[in-house]
Structures are given as C-alpha cells and as structure tokens.
C-alpha cells in the first residue's frame, strides 16, 4: 500500500445518495421560488456543505432561505434514505480489503454527522465506520473546497497529508484534497471526468479502487 490513510468522501462515494439528495434539493428550492433543476443542483451544490446553498441563493437573488430550511430539507432526505438508500456498488469489497490489510481509512464529508450516520446505519456501512473514523464539515470552520476538513481528518488519524489519498466524486472535494496536499482519485460514476480533471487518477467503477491503491 502506497498510502498510510485512505480518506473517503461519503455522498456518492460510500452511499449512493447524490441522486436522492439533489432531486430533493432541486425540488425544495423550486418550491421556495428559486427554480432549480436536478442538473443545476448537481452542478452547483454536489459535494458542498449546506452553507453553500444559503450563500449562493442569497448571492443570486438577494433573498435568504427560511430559517428552518436545513431542518426541513434533512427531514425529507432522511425519509428518502430510509426508503431508497443503498451503498455504492463495490464499496463494501474495498472496505473489506482495507480492513483485512490493516490499512487505516476514514470518511470526511460535507454532510452533517447526523446525515453520515443515518446513511451508514441504513446501508449497513456503520459496521465499517466507528465514531473515530467519521469527520464532518461541522468539525471545522470551512467546508470543501477549503482543505480544512481533510487536514483535520489526517491530523486526528495521525497521518501526514502527503501520506493520504482522498477518494472524491465532486469538483469541490477534488479542489479541497489538492489544496490539502493529498493525492486524490476521482470517482466518475456520476460526475463527467472533465469536471474532476485535477484528480491524479480517475476511475468509474468502485471495484477498480482497491487495485489502484496498491
């Protein structure tokens, strides 16, 4: 293994949540008078923390989202997770291999701790991610594309940034990993490869990842 720590993004990398959450986000913003398509949501918000949604809407329209926006949105997302969420195909095989080989790994997500845990519990990935392996943008001052979250995760896991690799599927996440001085592998199952061009390697099938890491 060429790395001392594998850092996974969560949404779209571990759990297949991006189609669900972006469909719901686009619908809710449209409902509130901010017309947003599914494609708009993927382009503008995929991989970002919730504050980016508030910031972009305010910047573009001069109007603030309702105070309970996050609460209502997350309630809708969690309900959809309970009905429909699945792990990304092939990711359990990757986690099994990392665990068997004794390779440290963790998750560093723009989502809240609650969102991460609900998704993992629903999909059975909670067996792989104990509390000390879970890091959220809630833990740092700035979310992706700032490097803070990845640097925080590496520090807590006791690994130098240059010995880490990040697995990401969003342009914002790739930017954050590069800014943190880490290698990054771009997962292109949902994201056009050209949008992840700054990643060191690109792959479209999670089953390929274990072979890329050695």
Would you kindly provide a written description of the structure presented here, covering whatever features stand out?
The protein has 214 residues and is α/β, with parallel strands linked by helices. Helices cover 45% and strands 12% of the residues. The chain has helices spanning 18-31, 38-45, 50-61, 69-84, 91-101, 113-123, 148-157, 171-179, 209-213; strands at residues 5-8, 105-109, 134-136, 164-168, 183-187, 201-203. Strands 3-2-1-4-5-6 form a 6-stranded parallel sheet, sandwiched between helices. α1 (18-31) crosses α2 and α1 runs antiparallel to α4.
| Rg on CA atoms, Å | 16 Å
The assigned structural class equals: alpha/beta
Helix-strand string: EHHHHHEHEHEHEEH
Catalogue the unreliable spans: none
> What is the beta-strand fraction?
5-15%
How is the largest sheet built, in terms of strand order? 3-2-1-4-5-6
Can you tell me the overall shape? globular
The number of helical elements comes to 9
Please outline the major beta sheet: 6 strands, parallel
Q: First CA to last CA: what distance? A: 4 Å
Mean pLDDT equals 95
